[in-house]
Design goal:
With about 300 residues, the protein is of the alpha/beta class. The protein has one domain: Metallo-beta-lactamase, Chain A. About 30% of the residues lie in helices and about 25% in strands. The protein contains ten helices and 14 strands. Strands 1-2-3-4-5-6-7 form a seven-stranded mixed β-sheet. β12 and β13 form a beta hairpin. The N and C termini lie far apart (about 40 Å). Bound molecules: zinc ion. Zinc ion binds next to α5.
């Protein structure tokens, strides 16, 4: 084997993961939709202070929802599920994971791909839901080389325009300045290999882009469809399996525009339940696959790929 910067890094990353995360396995949960095969690959998990999500929520009404889901007062540790779609021609990732520079417990996509029998060179397209670090930063390796050198990178036009604008670092909430600077730096490297699309476009065969703005200004979700089978890749438009489903109308601290994100969440859940669609959430448990069921005034996440 030729040792390149890339293979050297992957070997190191795989070794590190084996040492520091012995209790985690690479999740690969699969649904087959005719010619289309959809898996999710675990990039690891984040560690977040609870108020990152719960800060704006009414504490008295929040407590019973959290108790129902067994969530205590400690840090939240949501998984990060990168969707992989293969149709025999295209091998497509939806988001790129965190990469080496965000949080130590994330950025493990290289190992997950390896476990799935793929290398980064096999990826033909990387399609982004949005530009937050846990979705975008994995697009470059430790040396700032593209992690997926053969891939076309695809992003919604509104999302690209927002984060590529140098003024965003000054206008974004101060606690998110690092995100803006980090996104812009990576996008400069991707600029020559990116394809932009708009809501409603069929961006690849069987893949339609739907606007799901609010979490970020140009956040996109993707409907994957093969015949009568469909699954909606919602990214962070429904960002967790507890309050995101039980109280979708509440403002979440994790969303940049809370009001718009809440309206989007309600609309998506209404559509998903009305159409009885499967969904994949980037930060949902058990590989992120599941369905939504109505539950009182809200909804409930039902995990599973069936
Ligand atoms: Zn995220």
């Amino acid at each position: 084997m030729n040792l390149t910067r890339r293979t050297l890094l992957q070997s190191a990353a795989a070794g590190l993961a084996a040492v520091t995360l012995p209790h985690r396995v690479w999740a690969s949960t699969r649904i087959d939709m005719g010619a289309m095969q959809v898996d999710t690959l675990l990039d690891g998990h984040l560690t977040l202070p609870p108020d990152f999500i719960f800060g704006p929520m009414p504490k008295d009404q929040l407590a019973p929802v959290l108790a129902q889901h067994g969530i205590g007062s400690g840090p939240l540790t949501p998984d990060c599920n990168v969707t992989l779609m293969r149709d025999g021609t295209n091998t497509v990732l939806f988001d790129a994971g965190s990469g080496p520079a965000f949080q130590q417990t994330a950025g493990k996509l290289g190992g997950a791909l390896d476990a799935a029998g793929l290398t980064p060179d096999d990826i033909t397209h990387v399609v982004f839901t949005h530009c937050h670090p846990d979705h975008l930063w994995g697009v470059l390796d430790d040396f700032d080389d593209p992690m997926f050198p053969q891939a076309t990178h695809m992003m919604g036009r509104a999302e690209w325009d927002y984060w590529f604008d140098p003024a965003t670092a000054d206008t974004i909430q101060p606690e998110r300045t690092t995100m803006a600077v980090g996104a812009r730096r990576r996008m400069e490297i991707l600029e020559d290999s990116v394809t932009l699309f708009d809501a409603g476009d069929e961006i690849l065969p069987g893949v339609a882009a739907h606007a799901s703005h609010g979490h970020t200004p140009g956040h996109m979700s993707f409907e994957l469809r093969a015949g009568s089978n469909g699954v909606l890749v919602v990214g962070d438009a429904i960002g967790n399996h507890h309050v995101g489903f039980a109280r979708p109308g509440w403002i979440s601290g994790s969303d940049q525009d809370g009001e718009t994100a809440a309206a989007t969440r309600r609309r998506l859940l209404d559509q998903i339940t009305a159409d009885d669609m499967a969904l994949i959430g980037y930060h949902l448990p058990e590989g992120g696959f599941g369905r939504a069921e109505r539950d009182g005034d809200g909804y409930r996440f039902v995990p599973g790929a069936g």
